[in-house]
Amino acid sequence: MSFTITLPVILMALGIFALRVVDMALDTIRVLFVVRGRKGLAWVLGFMQSLVFVIAITTVLANVDNPLNIIGYAAGFATGNVVGMLIEERLAIGHIHITVVSPSRGAVIAEQLRANGFAVTEIPARGRSGMVAVLHCDVRRRQMDSVETIVLEADPDAYVTAEDVRSVRRGFWRA
To answer: Residues 168, 41, 91, 74: is their CA dihedral positive or negative?
Structure first.
């Protein structure tokens, strides 16, 4: 088997790479919409993703004698995952549950969060070294950085965790 690198060969491999980046970015975002229960968007993204995938894999299989196509396919897969994650971070769709544990400044953190329009639930708890305040706050994902800044300005030693929240039924949500 003879293989020669020419401009058309390189362009085909780059095209396959680009198709796989789009395919995997759509896949990453689609899975996140599935997890969040967004059926309509998941369907549309799945439809578009499958079209792009069929074009990419057909092109690779029709020209399997070109090793650059296979490399472009694999590199596009890997790159597409990262691109999808970056897009999803930018979209920041959904809500997040933030838990803050503060050994001494829980009331101050709660006051600051409420002053900025966030709902907070305070729970007294016992930690390894004594009493602590456990704060729960559910916010839109794009507000996470603001909440974290408020918390760490009030108590740099606070322990903060975050979890995705799927559905919301009743309660207070900042508009």
So the answer is: positive
Q: Is the pLDDT of residue 135 over 70?
A: yes
Q: pTM of the predicted model, to two decimals? A: 0.70
Clarify whether residues 14 and 83 are in a common domain.
yes
Tokens of 22: 């789009």
147 part of a folded domain? yes
Sequential DSSP letters for 126-171: EETTEEEEEEEEEEEGGGHHHHHHHHHHH-TT-EEEEEEE----SS
Q: What per-residue confidence (pLDDT) applies to 174?
A: 54
Domain that holds residue 126: 95-165
Residue 118 lies in a domain: yes
Q: How far apart are CA 109 and CA 122, in angstroms?
A: 10
| 134 located within any domain | yes
The answer on 100 and 47 residing in a single domain is: no
CA angle 28, 49, 16 (to 5 degrees): 95
